[in-house]
Amino acid sequence: MTKNNEHKNLNVPALRFPEFSGEWKKCKVSDLLDFYSTNSLSWEQLEYDTNAMMNLHYGLIHVGLPTMVDLAKDKLPNIKEDNMPTNFELCKEGDVAFADASEDTNEVAKTIEFYNLAEKNVVCGLHTIHGRDNKHKTVVGFKGYTFSSTVFHNQIRRIAQGTKIYSISTKNFSECYIGLPSKPEQTKIATLLRLIDERVATQNKIIEKLESLIKGIYSSILWKDYRLVSLSEIFIERNERTTTNNQYQVLSSTAKGLYRQSDYFDKEVASANNVGYKVLRLGDIVLSPQNLWLGNINYNDAFKIGIVSPSYKVFSIREGYNPYYVSCFLKTPKALYEYANASEQGASVVRRNLDVNAFMAICFPMPNRIMQDRISERVRAINMKLDIEKQVFEKLNIEKQYLLRQLFI
Question: Which residues pair with 70 in a beta bridge?
């Protein structure tokens, strides 16, 4: 690809395949697309896995469907019996559908294109705008991406109406423009972005498989015939605090891990609390009682020393137990639910806000230290692989967003 920095005033994108030249044509969206009526079927009137006509609900545009919808792989709900609309327009390959409303201006007019209908009958439903290029100015696959581009959504943000809910209508498309290159160039752009989308989908499956593998490992050891050990035998609560040292990093514990919140903390706020921040050292385990059921238990293997909110509980691990094994094991919701409810304090720990005394009384099957180390070694390796794959996933999405900014006008 080549950059077109020397043609800033021409109707060409900033980034372009080198074999193409010449200006793009600017086209009003209302001149490109003809619009068709849609139905207002709710989720209660839809179901999956029948042979009835399929229906596109706007919620699936926001979450669940890729930009290029391929019904050989992607799923749409079917219309329940007795809810069939009387007037409708069947979708064709190359048709686009916009979500006409959202709480987020970035999601208003979010678009999908029907890339492959797989010979299925589909109609557009609630809060969607159904558009078709009857003049055949575009190739199948190009429109979904040009309507997902940054330059198009910048136009939508300016005209979206509302305060809490932002919306558009077909009338708004008379104020929006897109750039149209030749059909061979459209095909090249659409093919590149579709291949990136397919790679993103594959990467997401890799991540899901690794996460499933980790869950499977823990599920397989939950019911082993190991010695039952209470958390009070494993944990030693620590209450080391500071109100004066501003050299500690401020750390935050979430369900996704332990993160650095900032490089310093406000000494005046800490002193005003009159309790100070808790000190978290390497090898400690930190948890938030308020969000324990959400997996907010983390092992500190990344920060030599830091401070956390006084609302957190900080524990060191007694000799004979692998801290990484203990922390990972406790991050599985099944472990907490099953063993908390099996304990004598079960009635008091089923709340979202867990009583720490009840938490410490929970008993788990615990293998010997050699087995703990072996399991930890394998899970740590999988987690490292998972982190790498998530980074790849993030980079692919960054690449796609870059191209959506640079390849269109």
Answer: 116
pLDDT 10s digits, 72-130: 999 999 999 999 998 899 999 999 999 999 988 889 999 999 999 999 999 999 999 99
Do 25-180 and 225-366 share a fold? yes
Which residues lie across from 25 on neighbouring strands?
180
Spell out the residues 6+ positions from residue 161 whose beta carbon is closer than 8 angstroms to its own.
167, 168
Q: From CA 259, how far away is CA 280, in angstroms rounded?
A: 12
Enter the tokens of residue 34.
């003809």
Q: What are the sequence ranges of the domains in the chain?
A: 25-180, 225-366
pTM score:
0.79
- 225-366: CATH number: 3.90.220.20
Amino acid 246: pLDDT = 59
Tell me the CATH class for 25-180. alpha beta
CA distance 132 to 33: 5
